[in-house]
Amino acid sequence: MKPGSAEVTVSVIIAVYNHANYLGEAIDSALTQEGVDSEIVVVDDGSDDGSADVARNFEPRVHIESQQRAGSGAARNHGVGVSSGEFIAFLDADDRFAPGKLAAQLERFFAEPAPDAVFGHVREFISPELDAEAAAAVRAPSEPGPSHLLGAMLIRREVFERVGPFSVDLKLRQGVDWYARAVDAGLRETMLDRVVLERRLHTTNSGLREAGTQDQYMLSAIRAALDRRRAQP
Could you tell me which residues come within 8 angstroms of residue 46 by beta carbon, excluding any fewer than 6 positions away? Predict the structure, then answer.
């Protein structure tokens, strides 16, 4: 198999809950990835703001699934379950893939030594629709740098399935919990020295909305990882 061949398919999973204003940009950034055969799966997690209608504007190039509100972990798991690509990528509905992300990451899988997952750098930006007051309330973007955010990852399906699905008990930081389990499972990873994800900062970021409970979710993920390690012989 070679990058860009019809034999290699990347499944892009976009879980959305009430991000109709940003979803179109996210989908477009996935659809315009060149040199990769991809399937785009949008899972609407019980939105009531018309997010599903935005996704339907991209049919039939996008496959749409809907579920009752169950959280982003359950939505991503649903998307993985209905997709079929040999490789899996995740994209938050308010973020964007950088141009060339998937092709650059996929190419790395065909070099030696072959990794299980390829990550890259993330660039943050303040959402342009914010007025000066709203923009000032959002923290300043950090410099682009290496990241283990889910949106910065491309992973082999067989490896994702070996690690297991995302937690449906954590409201935030499911990615932290999943990555900790992946490391425990011996994940072989590579970090590309290029921006692969553009992360939007805005007033309705889940991390900013629930800033007071982020540490609680992070600690839950860390405790779960420590419990797994203690249980090992």
Answer: 17, 66, 67, 68, 69, 70
The answer for residues whose C-beta is within 8 angstroms of residue 212's C-beta and 6 or more apart is none
Question: CA 5, 6, 7: angle at the middle one, nearest 5?
Answer: 90
The answer to whether 149 and 122 are in contact (CB under 8 A) is yes
Over the stretch 90-126, which tens digit does the pLDDT of each residue have? 999 999 999 999 999 999 999 989 999 999 999 999 9
Whole-model pTM?
Answer: 0.87
Instruction: Give alpha helix (H) positions in 32-186.
Output: 51-56, 72-82, 101-108, 132-137, 157-163, 174-184
Query: Mind listing the domains of the chain with CATH numbers?
Result: 9-231 (3.90.550.10)
The secondary structure element, H or E, covering residue 229 is: helix 214-231
Picking from 76, 77, 61, 88, the residue whose alpha carbon sits closest to that of residue 17 is 76
